[in-house]
Structure formats: C-alpha cells, structure tokens
Amino acid sequence: MARYGMVIDLKRCYGCYSCVMACKLANHTPPGVLWSRVLRGEMGVYPNSVRQALPVLCNQCEEPDCMKVCPTGATYQTDDKIVRIDKNKCIGCKYCMMACPYGARYSVREWKSYFPDGLPLSEYEEYSKQAWEAKSGVGVSTKCDFCIDRRAEGKEVACVQSCPAKARVFGDLDDPESEISYLIKTKRGFVLRPEMGTEPKVYYLPPR
Amino acid sequence: MESAKLDGQVQVEWRWLIAAYLFLAGVGGGAYLAGVIADLAGGPGWMLVSKIGVFLGMPCVLLGTMFLLADLGQPINAWRVWIKPKTSWIARGTIIIVIFMIFAAIHTAWWIWPFPGPLADNESARHIIGAIGAVFAFLTVVYTGLLLGYNQPIALWNTALLPVLFSVSAVSTGIMAIMLIGQGLGVEETKLALLANIDAFVLVFELFVLIVFLYNAYRTVESRFSAKRILTGAVAPYLWLCVILCGLVIPFFLELWGGHGFAAALAALLGLFGGLCLRYAILAGGTIGAIKAAGFEFARIDRPKDPMPAMGKVPPI
Lengths: 208, 317
Known about the structure:
The complex is a heterodimer. Chain A is 25% helix and 21% strand.
C-alpha cells in the first residue's frame, strides 16, 4: 500500500492563504474550522528580523496520539495510513483535540453560517451544510484527511492544487522514486514536533 | 498578525463542565475514602461520620458523570466507550468509575438506606466491601489526574504531580463535604472538630503540592506560558482569590480555630468552592506550546478565541 505524505517547501511559501481557502471550499468547513491553516513566525528584533509563514494541516501521523486516546475507536488509520474519524462512533469527548500536538482537530456543536443575524441560507450554504453534515458531522471531531474524496475522483489534494508557489507536493513516501521522497532526501526535509514521537508524515523543507 | 510573542495556544475545549466533573468525582471518591477509613479506624463511635462519607460517594460521582455527558458532542454514542476498554484513559476511567459506583451503591443500600440490611450487623463483610470500594474510590480520584496528564502537548498537565494534587484536593473536599452534611445531621462537636483539624493538615499539604506543581510548571520551558497564565495571567484571579484564599487559607484558619458550628460549615463551603476552582484553573491554564521550526516560533493565532484572553493578547482571527 501507498503511504501518503506531503512536503511543504518553506522557501517557496509566501503565506498567501490560498491553501486555507481551497480547503474551506473543498471540505465545506464552517466558521472557526481550519483543517489547513497558516501560522506566522518571526525571528529577531526589527529591523534585523525575518518573518516566515508555516502552513500546517493534519500530519497523518504513523503513531497518532489522537488515535491512542480515542475511547471508542472512532479514529482509525486506513490501509494507506491516513488517519480518519468514523463520525458514527465518535462521542465528541474532545480528548483527541487535547492530544494532538499540531492542533489539527476541530469540533463544532452545530453548523453555522458565515453570515450574521440568521439570514435565510442561500442555495450554496444549504448545499455546504448538507455536505458538512454528511461527511464530517456536528458534535464530533473532524480533521483533514488529505482530500480522500477528491483523490477518489481523480483530483489533486485541494491545498496542493491551489498553491500558486507550488510549495506543496503530495505523494507516496514508500516510493523511493517519487518526487516527495527525492525532496525529503536531498533538501533536508524535517517534520514538526518530532519529540512527540508520533512520526508525522507532513515534511517541511527549510526556508534557507 | 503580530503574534509571535503569543507563545502557546490555550485549550478552550474543556471548561466548566469538565471542571465540575473532575471536582465531583474527587468529592465523591474522597468522601467515600474518608468514610471507609472512619469506619475501619474509628470504631462504633464514628458510625455516623462513616455513613455520611459512604453515602456521599455514589451520588456525587453520578452527578459528575452527568456533567461529563453534558460536555459530549454526541452523548447518544456514549455507550461505545464500553466496547473498547483498552483504548484510552476515558474508557478505563469509565470502567473504574462504574465499578466504584456499584460498590458504593451496594455499600449504601445494605448498610444505610433504604434499609439497614446485611452489612449493619456483619462488620467484617462491611469492611471488606469498604476496602474494595476504597481501592476504586482511590483509582477514581487518581484517574482524574491521569486523564489530563496523558496529553503530551499540554505540558502543564503532563506531569506526575497532577494526580497527586487532585487526590489531595479530593480527600480535603471529601472531608469538607462530610463536615458540611455532618453539621446538619448533628454529629458531635468533638468529632467535627477532629475532622476539621485533620482537614486543616490536608489543606497545608495541598498548598504544598500546589506550590510544587506550579514551580515545576514554571521551571519547565514547555509549560512556562501555562504557569504564567495561571500565576499572573487570565486565570490568576481564580488561583489567588478562589483557590488559595477562599479554598485553602480561610478554611485552614476557620478549621483550626473554629472547628465546629457556623465556622466549620463556612470553611467546608469555601473549601468545596475552592476545589472546583482548582480544577477549573488547571483546565483553563492548559496551553499547547508554540511550534518551533527552523529557528522560528510559530504561534497558533487562528484557533478559536480564548473566552477570557489576557489584556492586550487578544488573538486576531
């Protein structure tokens, strides 16, 4: 089986938030839910300072802590090692949200519109609400699944496809010939929070 | 988005409902433990105190689990924790708590209410049930600390001191609950005064553990932001006013000098309130450290808003 992972080149990323918006469109995430998000960091003191954007998403860990703490087995790994949540088994205890070192998990009590004051839902919002409730559900934990449905339709992962800087590469880590394996090996790929021992599968290439 | 200084993401998922659950599990377990010890060590004179403690065990923990259920996103699925008992501390804890509630219920039903049955005459059987129940009461109390402590990313909780802190607090709040009910049921003043004196010592020990816990949190890089949040930040009023002043210092002096009557009841009420606020302060102080990569520190600025952000630290969304 494939073992899917992602490489994000920090030298190329300029923090445009395209991936955030693409993810929102593809997965119909309600307000406050950001499966794909961009963090900002700063080093040094002005005027001698450098800023850096860091796009993060679920790291689809090999040894996921979120799966270890799940009391019902709702969190599971697919054959290609993607961590998913069975919304029918999740009780919404939010223990996994505490255990995730990357803060990748979100839970909403109810679906909310982006627009205030309880205006009637537009046709698109209605569709979006149904899509969210059918796939992810309310009251349960939700998170990125590397666009499993889009890939089943033969499309690219949304954040990868939308990246204007081509900073993101998606591929099979087990395939030594794949672009992502090559990049990790030759460009000093690293992962976030390796000390947590969760063996994340989203790699980053250094900004310099 | 000038938030590089905001190191640490405050956990907002577990708040008052979970604090109430941890608190009530502590009170129930602690009261039951104290009741059983009073029965084992105190002899016939301590019967009423012991009965109050044993009686408090089950209802308190049951009420606590109601708070836990109220916090669940999908309580309809809650039965599923029984299917996979080996998976997590929530599953294990549920089993521990249910076994404790069963033993406490048997202990109560056969000894105190609705009918003073088999255990009233058979002292050794009562002691055996009490001892088994006490083991599970102790596990219930310790588990509340282990539950939080298993989370690696929240360094404030990920320490062996948390179960100790919670157990000491559970014993002190348990004794206080017995004192409070004992006032109403007319336990002799000398016994209440002795309970109050014992509790005063437990309170001193609790303060010591709390200081060690916070010192340890402050000296650990990963949890320093959490410690600052509790000591001087947004959670500080809960720590200094509710936990230390109302929950530890005032009850200590009231118990040491008053020991009975109105002073003891007030001490117990304040102490119980302090126990609840201790759980809340620890929960609200929990933060996930900033991600460090390639020499940068990345703050989590785009997660849900902290319901009580410190002044000048409101994360922009």
